[in-house]
């Protein structure tokens, strides 16, 4: 039987995983086996820029934490896995997806976005969504176009009124 100190330490890690999962708006399970230390540090830095981070846990402890939260990602938790946590729904998915394009050793397995399980296909779909800043820029551009068209119409209308007065 395991020592009580060891069991308490493991329970602490399980609680940590559960707390991070509850607090995160999204998490991504990915395979990192084959990345060098330099590449791993580069990935950590890129994730930190988007207010995200990743940690490597024992799969058995992650499975227990997910069981307590009633999250079914058991099939994805095979082999060396890491989990990226974020307060943003899309940011870690985009960072990991972009990183995977230049580092084939990184493979996105599954995730949890706003409490819903996302498979590889869903993660790929979410990674193609522009960032929040990009979406706001697109919105501002479309609003400026509408305002410009309105100002042109009003200017033409005022010119017509001036011609009618003369």
Short description:
The protein has helices spanning 4-23, 37-49, 59-69, 91-102, 120-127, 132-165, and strands at residues 26-31, 52-55, 81-86, 107-113, 116-118. The termini are far apart.
Structure notes:
With 166 residues, this protein is α+β, with helices and mostly antiparallel strands. It folds into two domains: 126 residues, Alpha-Beta Plaits, CATH 3.30.70; 36 residues. The chain is 59% helix and 16% strand. It is built from six helices and five strands. Strands 2-3-1-4-5 form a five-stranded antiparallel beta sheet, sandwiched between helices. The radius of gyration is 24 Å and the shape is elongated. It starts with a helix and ends with a helix. The model has no long low-confidence stretch (mean pLDDT 84).
Task: Describe the protein's topology.
Layout lengths: L3 H20 L2 E6 L5 H13 L2 E4 L3 H11 L11 E6 L4 H12 L4 E7 L2 E3 L1 H8 L4 H34 L1
Antiparallel strand pairs: 1-3, 1-4, 2-3, 4-5
Helix pairs in contact: 1-3, 4-5
Report, as a whole number of angstroms, the end-to-end distance: 101 Å
- Please list the strands of the largest sheet in the order they lie side by side: 2-3-1-4-5
| Total domain units | 2
Mean pLDDT: 84
Q: What is the CATH homologous superfamily assignment of the largest domain?
A: Ribosomal protein L10, N-terminal RNA-binding domain
Got a strand count?
5
CATH architecture of the largest domain: 2-Layer Sandwich
The parts where pLDDT drops under 50 for at least 5 residues are none
In the CATH hierarchy, the third-tier topology of the largest domain is known as Alpha-Beta Plaits
Helicity range of the residues? Answer: 55-70%
Q: Biggest sheet, open or closed, and with what strands and sense?
A: 5 strands, antiparallel
**What percentage of amino acids are in beta strands?**
15-25%
Q: Tell me, briefly, the overall form.
A: elongated
Structural category: alpha+beta
